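Here is the promised in-class demo. Please do not try to memorize the tokens; focus on the logic of going from shape to residues.
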């Protein structure tokens, strides 16, 4: 069982950001590297329990944080369900403070950035604006652009801009609302084909309502569009010089992958993989898809950072009978009730 450490980082403007650290699994022969996990929109650390345990089992130290406005970090608006941000620069400032005050002072190994969805988007932003910190990055279903459903993209942008102009930046995007996990159904979901992992995530939110986030605001949407526009500047992307592995979901309903080729072509060292049978939440997908992910992850690490020591052991969580997944686990990670108290 891995040991975790949680604390709150106070930002210069008084927000409290929950951060977590997990040392390499005690049975690993050596600490290979340090992985910093950037979660997606409306996520929280507990959602990545399985991935964190795999990484620690493989000899990696792992750091993570709950983004401002979600998880157990400070919520931005009185309605804690609303996902809101003034600018993605605020996310980046929080993350850079986290890196400089906590991660870098203790980091003595290679430093890898692992970003999921919105976390993958912010990873690209950070790698461009803050260089010579990370050695490489793996981006999973990165939010390089968003789908806007029934609305054409230009109209969605206009609606967000207009709503913010008239002072409605704190209002929910049309059609979005507070989130109640009990109303969610596996059939027709956009996230995963794996029923067990889907319901584990839903049950975690039902038991810990302080982790729950609802829909986004017009302010969040406008900030998202502005940040996406930055990734569509070739000079901005070319500032990223570290090797990247970019994995996209083939059955994607949330992220617009139409500009994937453009993004990859303007990154100096980028490998692209598309998992044709995966939905958006690749980390919550079936064992077969996760096996493919770990094979690609190992290959990327070995190609760019030398022999991957832990690959020889082939100790994977999804292949181990004693660590069979997030369901049925009685771990401190899942049951530390003090850790799950909101700190708004």
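The designed amino acids, position by position:
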């Amino acid at each position: 069982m891995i040991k975790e450490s949680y604390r709150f980082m106070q930002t210069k403007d008084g927000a409290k950001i929950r951060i977590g650290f997990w040392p390499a699994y005690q049975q690993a022969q050596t600490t290979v590297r340090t992985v910093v996990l950037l979660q997606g929109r409306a996520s929280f650390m507990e959602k990545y329990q399985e991935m964190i345990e795999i990484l620690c089992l493989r000899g990696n130290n792992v750091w993570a944080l709950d983004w401002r406005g979600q998880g157990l970090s400070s919520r931005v608006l009185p309605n804690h369900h609303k996902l809101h941000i003034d600018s993605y620069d605020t996310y980046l400032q929080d993350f850079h403070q986290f890196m400089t005050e906590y991660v870098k002072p203790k980091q003595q190994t290679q430093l890898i950035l692992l970003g999921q969805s919105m976390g993958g988007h912010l990873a690209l932003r950070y790698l461009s604006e803050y260089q010579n910190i990370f050695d490489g990055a793996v981006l999973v279903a990165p939010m390089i652009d968003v789908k806007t459903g029934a609305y054409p993209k230009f109209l969605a942008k206009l609606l967000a801009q207009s709503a913010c102009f008239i002072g409605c930046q704190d209002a929910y995007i049309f059609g979005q609302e507070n989130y109640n996990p009990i109303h969610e159904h596996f059939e027709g979901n956009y996230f995963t084909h794996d029923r067990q992992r889907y319901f584990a995530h839903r049950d975690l939110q039902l038991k810990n309502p302080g982790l729950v986030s609802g829909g986004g605001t017009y302010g969040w949407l406008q900030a998202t569009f502005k940040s996406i526009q930055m990734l569509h500047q070739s000079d901005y992307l070319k500032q990223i010089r570290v090797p990247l592995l970019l994995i996209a979901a083939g059955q994607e309903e949330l992220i617009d992958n139409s500009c994937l080729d453009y993004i990859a072509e303007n990154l100096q060292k980028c490998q692209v993989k598309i998992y044709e049978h995966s939905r958006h939440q690749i980390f919550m997908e079936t064992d077969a898809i996760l096996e493919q992910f770990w094979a690609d992850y190992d290959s990327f690490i070995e190609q760019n950072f030398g022999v991957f020591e832990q690959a020889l052991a082939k100790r994977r969580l999804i292949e181990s009978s004693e660590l069979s997944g997030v369901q049925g686990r009685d771990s401190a990670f899942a049951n530390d009730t003090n850790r799950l108290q909101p700190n708004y």
